Amino acid sequence: MILPSHATVACIKWGTLFGPEYVNRLYSGVRRNLSMPVRFLCMTEQADGLHPDIEILDLPVEPFAEPMRAALQVANRQGAMRKVSLFKPGLIADLEGPVLGFDLDVVITGSLDAILALAPGHVVMRHDWVEARKGRPTGHGSVFRYDPAQHGFLYEDLAADAYAEVETARGSEQRYTSHKAMENSVFTYIPEDWVVSFKYDCNPFPGNYLHPARLPEAARVVCFHGRPKMPEAIEGYRGSLIRYAKPTPWLQDHWVDRTRQDLGARWG
Fold first, then answer.
1. CB contact at 8 A, 9 and 98
2. How far apart are CA 50 and CA 192, in angstroms?
3. Quick one: pLDDT band at residue 201, thresholds 50, 70, 90?
4. Which residues contact 94 (CB under 8 A, 6 or more apart)?
5. Cβ contacts of residue 52 below 8 Å, gap of 6+?
């Protein structure tokens, strides 16, 4: 496994759904689980509360924002597909090599080196859980690795005809990203046991009533798509008959306690 001299990691925070602690805890989890120095960037319109070592990228208003918004309204996906701004070639100054990207509702639980090194030259994402069950090819957007120098089409194709691209992807950013990479023959799935779902892999029904959620041994990233989110899962959650979770001590450890040990209580 050939690794770069440093890792570039990026996320995006917009609106008020996630506070700065989500970014700080992601930053801590990443740097504790990569074996090289980390350059961590957050694209946001609100940088208050972020750790000073996090590099800020201004959240842009894209020139294709209006046709993208119109297409998203038709797809009933208002506010989505902001992540595509991260794909713009030249956005990250002095960038060398790929970027490892994360959504904010993930928890890092193991080494990320293998994900960073997987299939050089390809866009890598995990197979979406629902699409995989239906036998359809779509990546899940919680974890993604790309290289703007090689995969500029991810930004440029949308910029050229945002309405048509959003319409083709049916308003799904992860479908757009993964299918566009597949069309260009530069897509590889991350092994499914490396990136797991809290609700599907850690806490499936009906075992969630019998024992607390379990952390799979090979898991490097746990995704909290849908509900519960991390604070809810730590405390215990009852959203429906299926979406029930007992309190989850390992989540408190990985997401909160280790961040406080790493960055200090102010940032955790």
1. no
2. 31
3. very high
4. none
5. none
Q: Work out the average pLDDT over 57-85.
A: 87
Cβ-Cβ contacts under 8 Å for 187 (sequence gap 6 or more): 122, 123, 124, 125, 139, 178, 181
Amino acid identity, position 243 = R
Across residues 90-96, what is the average pLDDT? Answer: 95
Residue 86 · residue 120 · CB < 8 Å: no
129 within 8 A of 197, measured Cβ to Cβ:
yes
Provide CB contacts within 8 A for 130, sequence distance 6+: none
Q: How far is CA 106 from the centre of its chain?
A: 7
Tokens of 197: 């779902």
User: Considering the chain, what percentage of its residues have pLDDT values greater than 70?
Assistant: 99
Give the model's pLDDT for residue 77: 75
Question: What is the average per-residue pLDDT within 48-69?
Answer: 94
Are 49 and 30 spatial neighbours (Cβ–Cβ below 8 Å)? no
Lowest mean pLDDT among 74-78, 80-84, 142-146: 74-78
Residue 259 CA neighbour count, 13 Å, CB half: 23
